[in-house]
């Protein structure tokens, strides 16, 4: 019995030591996703496996170091949507990289204009989906965040809301009359990347933060549960 206990203890110590080394070097790290910014593809409170051995390409989720006056130092995760010298443009909410539609065949979350009855039916019958109220218009209508596949399935795809007016926060960073849905074209500077959340209308990403230093990327997301 003592031998079994000793063997189990040694095994546990060895495994922990290996994990500690992998984690401290960034070869393999585990993070808890504490935000809805990448729903529906990275679920809130899911565990995410990250490695710095993978050189990310456009479309990969990456983690990066970020610091601001409001939250201090943090690790954030967004989708890589532009590396240095890429041309980024968002037209009516669709992202283009070097004139190629990169949103095609990916399920994002956007805002949709629904009647109150539409929303009540969704809220009651489709609880497994991400459904969040963004804005009440009046007693009969509201804007709701739902994933695109679900919106199309329910026949709401044509009711997607896109911003037309200038966003003063985006203008303060990029000095153009752009907004989250109509942005660019702009070339990604050397040593920088452009990152976006999959919850496109509820994500403080590069549209609001500016370009991110490539050197601040910690690793590429390998797996999430």
Structure description:
- With 225 residues, the chain is α+β, with helices and mostly antiparallel strands.
- It has one domain (2-105, 164-224): Ribbon (Umud Fragment, subunit A).
- It has helices at 2-25, 116-125, 148-153, 168-174, 206-209; strands spanning 29-32, 47-51, 61-68, 72-80, 87-91, 94-97, 100-101, 109-115, 131-138, 141-147, 183-187, 192-193, 195-196, 212-213, 217-224.
- A six-stranded antiparallel sheet has the order 1-2-15-3-4-13.
- A hairpin with a 2-residue loop joins strand 6 and strand 7.
- It starts with a helix and ends with a strand.
- Corresponding CATH architecture: Ribbon
The end-to-end span amounts to: 36 Å
Oligomeric form of this entry?
A: single chain
Name of the CATH homologous superfamily: Umud Fragment, subunit A
Number of strands: 15
Class inferred from helices and paired strands: alpha+beta
Number of helices: 5
Chain-averaged pLDDT? 86
Radius of gyration equals 21 Å
- Beta-strand residue fraction: 25-35%
Spatial strand sequence of the major β-sheet: 1-2-15-3-4-13
Helix and strand element order:
HEEEEEEEEHEEHHEEEHEE
Shape: globular
Major sheet: size, sense and barrel closure?
Answer: 6 strands, antiparallel
State the share of residues found in helices, binned by percent: 10-25%
Low-pLDDT sequence parts = 5-9, 11-22
Named CATH topology: Umud Fragment, subunit A
User: What is the C-level CATH assignment?
Assistant: Mainly Beta
**Count of domains:** 1
Summarize the structure.
With 225 residues, the chain is of the alpha+beta class. It contains five helices and 15 strands. The strands form four sheets. It has a six-stranded antiparallel β-sheet with strand order 1-2-15-3-4-13. The chain has a four-stranded antiparallel β-sheet with strand order 7-6-5-11, with no helix packed on it.
